[in-house]
């Protein structure tokens, strides 16, 4: 929480002409983080499918 308070304090002292840059940067960070999750999942899918796509696994998960 301390980092959030420091960030908010820094934003408060910025000239208003810089706020659009801050908003763009925050949006970029959020987009980058959200984009990493699906990419990681897609990259691991073929590797994990070798263990997960088996009749034994299907039977084990059938009751859940």
Structural class, from secondary structure content? mainly alpha
Strand content: under 5%
Sheet with most strands: none
Low-confidence stretches: none
Would you report the number of β strands? 0
Write down the overall geometry.
Answer: elongated
Helix content: over 70%
**Helical element count?**
3
Distance between the termini: 39 Å
Secondary-structure element string: HHH
Q: What's the rounded overall pLDDT mean? A: 86
Radius of gyration: 22 Å
Secondary structure elements and their pairing?
Layout: H1 2-13, H2 19-52, H3 55-61
Write up what this structure looks like.
The protein is mainly alpha-helical and 64 residues long. Helix content is 83%, strand content 0%. It is built from 3 helices and no strands. It has helices at residues 2-13, 19-52, 55-61. The two termini are 39 Å apart. The mean pLDDT is 86.
What are the key terms here?
83% helix, mainly alpha, 64 residues
């Amino acid at each position: 929480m301390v980092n959030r308070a420091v960030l908010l304090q820094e934003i408060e002292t910025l000239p208003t002409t810089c706020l659009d840059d801050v908003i763009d940067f925050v949006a970029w960070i959020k987009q980058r983080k959200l984009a990493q999750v699906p990419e990681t999942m897609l990259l691991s899918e073929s590797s994990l499918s070798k263990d997960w796509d088996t009749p034994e696994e299907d039977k084990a998960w059938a009751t859940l």
